[in-house]
From TrEMBL, chain A:
The lineage of its organism: Bacteria, Pseudomonadati, Pseudomonadota, Gammaproteobacteria, Oceanospirillales. Keywords: Membrane, Transmembrane, Transmembrane helix. It comes from Litchfieldella qijiaojingensis. The chain crosses the membrane at residues 54-76, 88-106, 126-145. It comes from the Bacteria. This is DUF2177 family protein.
Automatic annotation (TrEMBL), chain B:
Keywords: Signal. The keyword Transcription regulation does not apply. This is Glucose/Sorbosone dehydrogenase domain-containing protein. Residues 34-362 form the Glucose/Sorbosone dehydrogenase domain. Residues 1-22 form the signal peptide. It comes from the Bacteria. Pfam families: GSDH (PF07995). PANTHER family: ALDOSE SUGAR DEHYDROGENASE YLII (PTHR19328:SF75), HEDGEHOG-INTERACTING PROTEIN (PTHR19328).
C-alpha cells in the first residue's frame, strides 16, 4: 500500500467502524429502555432488531459520522504532529469529542429535542462517544501503520 | 386476523377510495393571514373563534370579516416549535354561560407542559379566566403537547396530551400525564368514575395511557364511541377507539420507526395493549378530526374526516356501521398542510391551513341546492 491512499483507507475504515458499532450500541440502549418497561426481549428479537438498525439507522448515522470524521481526523493528525506522539489516544479523543459536537449541532437544529434516542441519557451519550473513539483509534492504527516496513 | 385486517386496510385504504363516489365541492377562503391557525370554534350567531399557535385568539365576525385586534385576556403562552396556543372549545352551555376552554403550552423552554384554562368570553375579551389543569411533570423541549379536547355527554371533557418526545417511556407511567388522555369535570375536578381514581400510584385524571401525541378527538354520540388519532414517529400514525383505563402501547408497540430509521420497538402488538383501528404507514401526520353530521354533503354523513399535515390533504374515513371500510384523499389540490377540519353548523366543512399565513377555508357544495 502506498502512503497516498493510507489516510483514505483509514478514514473509510474509521467511518465504518464507528457507524456499525454505534448502531449496535444504540439498539441495545433502546431495547434496554423497553426491558425496563417490562418487555421480554428474546435473543432472536435482539438480533433481528440489531440487524434492522444496521440497515435502517446507519444511513443517517453514517452520514453524520462521515462528516464528523472529515473534520476530527485531520485535526487530530495536526495535534499528533505537534505533540510528536500519542496518535492513538488523540484520534480516539478527537472522534469522541467530534461526535459530541455533532450531536449538539444536530439536536440544536432539529425540531425534536434529541434526534438519537440512545443519547437522551448521559450513559447513552458516553457509550456512543466510546464507539466513535474506537473509530478514531482505528483510524490512527491504519493511518500511522508502516505498511512498507511491516511487509518488508 | 383482525390485525391483518387493520394492516390490509392501511395498505389498501387509498385504493379503496377509487371505488368511493366522488363528491363535488367548492372551496371558499373565509379568512387569511392567520399565523399557524390551530383550532376553530363556532359561536352562536355565526361568528367563529380561531386560535393562532403564536398565542392569539381571533374572532371571525358573523359577516366573515376577521377582526383585526385579537381577543384580549388569553393566558401567557409558551410559543416555539410545536408549542403555542392550541384548542379553543365552547362550553356545552356556552350560549348561557359564555364559557370557553383554551389549551396551550405553558412554562418556559426549560420547563413546560400543557395547560387548560377556562374563561368567559365577554365580547372583546376573556374574563374570569382560571387554569383548570396543568399536566405534570414539566419537561424540556418544544415537542408533543397534544392539546385537542372534546366534551362528553356526561358533562366531562377529555384532553389529549403528548409524550414530550424525549420522554416516550413515560407514556407507560401512570404516575404522570405524559402520553395520555385525561378526563376532567367541566370545572377541572376529577370525575369519581375515572378509571385510575382508586390507584394510589396513578394520576386520577388519566383516562387512557400509552399515547405518543394525540392530535384529534371525536365523540360519536350515535355509537357512544370516543375516537382519537395520534402521531406515530416515522409511520405508525394511529386511529384508536378509546376504552377507559386501556393502554395503547406507545412506545412498546408501534408500526413506526424512529426518525433516524432505528426501531423504537420490535413489537407491533403485544398482549395487554390495544391495537389501533387503523394505522397510517408511511405517516400522514394527522392533525384534526371531525365526524361529519351536516346536511350539505349527504354522502359524507357518518364519515370521519382527518386533516393531515405531511400528507397535505384530508382523509375521509368511510364508515359503515361504525367500521372503517375505506379512505378517500380530499383537497389534495390545495397542496397545503391542513391543521384542522371541522363540521360547521351550516353543514359546510371548515379547514385550517398550517402556515405563517394560514387560511380558514369553507367547503360547500358547488352550487346552492
Amino acid at each position: 500500500m502506498t502512503n497516498r491512499w493510507q489516510p483514505l483507507v483509514a478514514y473509510v475504515a474509521a467511518v465504518l467502524d464507528a457507524t456499525l458499532l454505534g448502531s449496535i450500541v444504540q439498539t441495545q440502549f433502546n431495547l434496554a429502555a423497553l426491558s425496563a418497561l417490562g418487555a421480554e426481549i428474546s435473543f432472536t428479537t435482539r438480533l433481528a432488531t440489531t440487524g434492522h438498525d444496521l440497515l435502517g439507522f446507519t444511513p443517517l448515522y453514517g452520514s453524520l459520522i462521515a462528516i464528523m470524521m472529515l473534520g476530527a481526523m485531520p485535526a487530530a493528525s495536526v495535534v499528533t504532529r505537534w505533540l510528536g506522539s500519542g496518535a492513538w489516544l488523540i484520534h480516539a479523543l478527537a472522534a469522541a469529542l467530534g461526535l459530541w459536537v455533532t450531536l449538539w449541532i444536530v439536536d440544536t437544529l432539529a425540531p425534536m429535542p434529541t434526534l438519537i434516542a440512545a443519547t437522551r441519557s448521559l450513559e447513552g451519550t458516553l457509550a456512543m462517544m466510546a464507539t466513535a473513539a474506537l473509530g478514531g483509534w482505528g483510524y490512527a492504527i491504519l493511518a500511522y501503520f508502516d505498511w512498507d516496513g511491516a511487509s518488508g | 386476523m383482525r390485525r391483518f385486517g387493520h394492516i390490509l386496510l392501511a395498505a389498501t385504504g387509498l385504493s379503496v377510495c377509487a371505488m368511493a363516489l366522488a363528491v363535488d365541492y367548492r372551496v371558499e377562503t373565509l379568512a387569511e393571514g392567520l399565523e399557524h391557525p390551530w383550532s376553530l370554534a363556532f359561536l352562536p350567531g355565526d361568528g367563529m373563534l380561531v386560535t393562532e399557535r403564536a398565542g392569539r385568539l381571533r374572532l371571525i365576525e358573523a359577516d366573515g370579516a376577521l377582526r383585526e385586534a385579537p381577543i384580549a385576556g388569553v393566558p401567557e403562552v409558551f410559543v416555539g416549535g410545536q408549542a403555542g396556543l392550541f384548542e379553543v372549545a365552547l362550553a356545552p352551555d356556552h350560549a348561557d354561560s359564555g364559557l370557553v376552554y383554551l389549551s396551550y403550552a405553558c412554562g418556559t423552554l426549560a420547563a413546560n407542559t400543557t395547560c387548560l384554562d377556562r374563561a368567559r368570553l365577554d365580547g372583546q375579551r376573556l374574563v374570569e379566566r382560571e387554569t383548570l389543569f396543568r399536566a405534570v411533570p414539566d419537561k424540556q423541549g418544544r415537542s408533543h403537547y397534544g392539546g385537542r379536547l372534546t366534551f362528553l355527554p356526561d358533562d366531562t371533557l377529555v384532553l389529549g396530551l403528548g409524550d414530550g418526545f424525549d420522554y416516550r417511556e413515560q407514556a407507560q407511567n401512570p404516575a404522570n400525564h405524559l402520553g395520555s388522555l385525561v378526563r376532567l369535570n367541566l370545572d377541572g375536578s376529577v370525575p369519581d368514575d375515572n378509571p385510575f381514581v382508586d390507584d394510589s400510584e396513578a394520576r386520577a385524571e388519566l383516562y387512557s395511557i400509552g399515547h405518543r401525541n394525540i392530535q384529534g378527538i371525536v365523540f360519536d354520540t350515535t355509537r357512544s364511541e370516543l375516537l382519537i388519532h395520534e402521531h406515530g414517529p416515522r409511520g405508525g400514525d394511529e386511529l384508536n377507539r378509546i376504552i377507559p383505563g386501556a393502554n395503547y402501547g406507545w412506545p412498546l408497540v408501534t408500526h413506526g420507526v424512529d426518525y433516524t430509521g432505528a426501531r423504537v420497538t420490535p413489537f407491533t402488538e403485544l398482549p395487554g395493549f390495544e391495537s389501533p383501528l387503523l394505522h397510517w404507514t408511511p405517516s400522514i401526520a394527522p392533525s384534526g378530526m371531525t365526524l361529519y353530521d351536516g346536511k350539505a354533503f349527504p354522502e359524507w354523513r357518518g364519515d370521519l374526516f382527518v386533516s393531515a399535515l405531511v400528507a397535505r390533504q384530508v382523509h375521509r374515513l368511510i364508515r359503515e356501521d361504525g367500521e372503517i371500510v375505506g379512505q378517500e384523499a380530499l383537497f389534495t389540490e390545495l397542496g397545503e398542510r391542513i391543521r384542522d377540519v371541522r363540521t360547521g353548523p351550516d353543514g359546510a366543512l371548515y379547514l385550517l391551513t398550517d402556515s405563517a399565513k394560514g387560511r380558514v377555508l369553507r367547503v360547500v357544495p358547488p352550487s346552492p341546492p
